[in-house]
Request: fold
Amino acid sequence: MLPLRDDIPSRTIPVVTVTIIILNALAFFYELSLGRQIEHLLLDWAIVPRRYTDPDVARHFSIPEQATPFLTSMFLHGGWLHLIGNMWTLWIFGDNVEDRLGHRKFLGLYLLSGFAAGLVHILTNTDSMLPTIGASGAVAGVMGAYFRFFPHARVETVIPPLFFGPVFVVPAVIFLGWWFLLQFFNGTVSLIASRSDFGGVAWWAHVGGFVIGMGLVLFAPRKRAVQRYDFDDTYRR
Reply:
């Protein structure tokens, strides 16, 4: 399912969310400008699990060089669909979580979720030499926080490739819960399937990011009432 919008309007301007989207777009345009040289960029700035798990490989990198990809990989993407999918999901759910947490705490949530997602990916793909990039782990953390704060929100969705309908409206707890179960199931299958059979999606990074994001806000109190609106743009409470 692809989210189109939710029924929780943001009360403030999501400055951090917008800034993250802009930075990801600029980084992607920079990737495009590199042409074939992008391979060198990925080797330096993407997460390559074996670079951390193999002592013979790890000793060639300093601590800063090993730490940097946990941040830079979150701002790199493998194609237009990869970028748009992550940034659109961030836009749908990020503004409300940022509104709820405030700008600084939201940024902390986003980065910590991304770091944790990278670590989980390494632990579940110890022998992989495949560079891993994308904001999906950090975005999954935002989704986990949204799951905690707004489980009763409604999400308007479509099912690809039927992008022009029919449109379904489902509770956020169902949409996000189903998304999480898909990541968990695919991640479990990926542990027993070869990469050539199952693809190179970082399923466990998604799972890890979601769990960390939800965990970081687990004890934050939920507001008893939030402003909502019907999908015909009529506001209500």
The longest helix spans residues 80-101.
